[in-house]
Design a protein that fits this description.
globular, single chain, mainly alpha, 93 residues
């Protein structure tokens, strides 16, 4: 799963360049997603890819605030959650 997150982070920050160069004035994003990327967005959004995209943006914003920068290796990244968060996630809340 960590490898997939790296792909999504690269997708957001533009490391995987495809098509036209990015414009800072862009209001829409169009790109073809492979099955793995689509699965991640669907999982993050609980079946809604648009909501999943927003969740991934939130996750990237948090990683950035912790010091992550594009191109850094995510293979050693870890996540610590309070036990209550784990219990809620386990119950599907």
């Amino acid at each position: 799963m960590r490898e997939s997150w790296g792909v999504i982070v690269e997708l957001i920050v533009g490391e995987l360049r495809m098509g036209r160069p990015a414009s800072l004035n862009a209001k829409t994003l169009q790109r073809k997603l492979d099955d793995g990327q689509r699965t991640i967005l669907l999982a993050a959004g609980r079946g809604d890819m648009s909501a999943g995209f927003l969740e991934v943006l939130d996750a990237y914003q948090h990683l950035y605030s912790l010091g992550y920068r594009p191109g850094m290796d995510l293979s050693r990244a870890s996540l610590s959650l309070p036990l209550e968060c784990y219990r809620s996630a386990h119950k599907g809340l």
